[in-house]
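Subgroup meeting minutes
Present: P.N., E.W., G.H.
Scribe: E.W.

1. P.N. recapped why we're keeping a running log of single-chain structure predictions: easier to compare across weeks, and new members can see raw inputs and outputs side by side.
2. G.H. added today's entry (106 aa).
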Amino acid sequence: MKRFVFYFIFGYACYLSWVKLSGNEPQQLTDIHQDTISNSIREAAQTAPRYASKPIEMDAGFHCDGRQYCSQMTSRAEAEYFNRYCPNTKMDGDNDGRPCENDSRW
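Output recorded in log:
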C-alpha cells in the first residue's frame, strides 16, 4: 500500500511538472474575447423567437395546486398559466414556452 501511495504522489508530481514546463496551462480569455462572447450572446437573445400569444396575467382565476401534466388541465389558458407561474410542471417538452403542444383536446 505504501508503494502505491508513493507511486501515485510521484506520478502526480511528474504530471504537474510536465504541465508547468510545457506551457499547457489553461489560458484565461482576454477582454476582446469576452466582449465578443458577450455581444454574440446579446444578439442571440434579441433574435430568439418569442412565443406570440396574449400574456396571461397572474390574476387569471387559476392557482397552483400541484398539477403538473397536460392531462390534468382543462384548458390551454390554464396550461399556459401553470407552465409560467407554477413550479415543477412537466408540460413543455421542448422548452419553447408553449405547453401541451401535442394535446388534441384544444
